Amino acid sequence: MLFEIENISYSRSGKLALHDLSARLPVGASSVVGPSGSGKSTLLRLLNRLADPDAGRVVYEGVDVRERDPLELRREVSLVPQLPALIDGTVHDNVAYGPRLVGHSFDARSCLELAGLDPAFEERDAAKLSVGEQQRVMLARALALDPRVLLLDEPTSALDRVARDAVETTLQGLRARTAISTVVVTHDMDQARRLADYVVRIDGGTVEAQGAADEMLGDETEPVIAAAEDAS
Fold first, then answer.
1. Does residue 223 register a pLDDT over 80?
2. What are 50-68's pLDDT values in tens digits?
3. Which three-class secondary structure state does DSSP give residue 70?
4. CA distance linking residue 25 with residue 213, whole number of Å
5. pTM of the full predicted structure?
6. How would you class 190 by CB atoms within 10 Å of its CB: exposed for 0-12, middle for 13-18, buried for 19 or more?
7. Sign of CA dihedral 114, 217, 201, 162
8. Which of 50, 151, 174, 194 is least surrounded, with the fewest CB atoms within 10 Å of its CB?
9. Residue 166: which residues within 8 A CB-CB, separation 6 or more?
């Protein structure tokens, strides 16, 4: 089992965001699904110690994440945020940002290709890219750290349908070409069906159900639950 989440509770600004939540996320492609404000993004941040629970524990590959150095854990379990946050400079500068901080070697062109971008993007001005292209540069920057797990927080919520489809195709390609596990947070049941083999549905800060995607979601098209997750 990749992650075991055991009876966690977490409060932010005096408000309970997660309550006695337990879930399992296997190796491979998983999705955490729920409406806006349900605690999806909060749960995602607990997986690589961007926050720690007030109670309970998160276990990664059999070890409580609080026993891991946070920076080392975040290189291995890398978060791609909901909105692109690129630095000034070229695409190469952005892909190189994380590896240079930790002295990690990387191949920018290979990372761009895995992220669904032509390696020729390497010298382009990051500020002049479309939002969809910027999101894939964020993915390439995460891949440059050679992670074992990618945490993706609403990766297509700011994109139009064409850009969304391109990012989803990229993520499906990663599944086929690498051994990287993915955990995708989304409010869109159809997206969870396309991108995940295992689904955890949460609402009100607790788990409603979890299991294999084909059993949890079936084949019927379901509407988008809500707008993109807020900062929670």
1. no
2. 999 999 999 999 999 999 9
3. helix
4. 12
5. 0.90
6. middle
7. positive
8. 50
9. 116, 132, 136
